Amino acid sequence: MNSDLVELIKLSDVDKSIDSFNPKIEAANKKLANAQEKLNNIQEKIDKTQNIVTGNEEKVIEFDNQLVLLNQQLKDIAKKSKSVTTEKEIKALTLEESMAKEKMTFANAEIEKFQSINEIKSEEIVELKAYFDEEQESLDTISKDVSLIISDIDNSKMQLYKKREDTTQDIQPNILQFYEKIRMWAGNTAVVPMRKQACYGCFMKINDKTYASVIKGTELVGCPHCGRILYMVNEEPEEEY
Questions:
Q1: Within a 10 A sphere around the Cβ of 94, how many other Cβ atoms?
Q2: How many domains is the chain built from?
Q3: Which one of 115, 147, 168 terminates a domain?
Q4: Mean pLDDT per 10-residue run, the chain (241 residues)?
Q5: Is the terminal CB of the chain with fewer CB neighbours within 10 Å at N or C?
Q6: Of 3, 33, 6, 10, whose CA–CA distance to 142 is shortest?
Q7: What backbone phi and psi angles, to 5 degrees, belong to 15?
Q8: How far apart are alpha carbons 138 and 146 in whole angstroms?
Q9: Does 138 lie in the same domain as 55?
Q10: Residue 198: what are its φ and ψ, rounded to 5°?
């Protein structure tokens, strides 16, 4: 087999090994991202629930202020009632007093309602924060695991990069450039075997002339259909039954 082709096959195998780590890295990062997203969702629920509590507290303050004003209004009505003399004035004060009391009843009911809601929401916040702490611990563990995985992969890739560098030194620059050009679009299928007279990159049948050249193995041969570099592999004969 052509010596350049031998080195290209080695180089292709190294490149495949390097890129084989990508799915592992993506899986590890995805696991970390999912854990972080889960934690973010919990925090978002905590924030939303806290906003409800804060909003309700502000409404309670508003109704408390209304009660102060209404209470003062009732005191003023009581003072006025001592000096009124006509039936019309009495009716007007009675109506004003009745409306003030209705507003006070409503305000007290609203305060009770919002305070009741806040009791429930405060319990939810406590539960959510406990859940958040659990997921934070889980995230920290996952983060450490991912860091170890990435570190191991980086070490392995460094060794492969060194092997790749050593391999490329044995390949002529023009042939290496040719390989890299194909690899830009073919990825790790720049160099592929030929089996059963077919390119195992595009899986198209190879014509007899190209097939013979690949078998001879004295020069680099590209697939006439896709342009990938072809090499011959020894095929085991099919078993006869």
A1: 12
A2: 2
A3: 168
A4: 88 94 94 96 97 97 97 93 87 93 97 97 97 97 96 95 93 93 94 95 96 92 96 66 43
A5: C
A6: 33
A7: -60, -40
A8: 12
A9: yes
A10: -135, 145
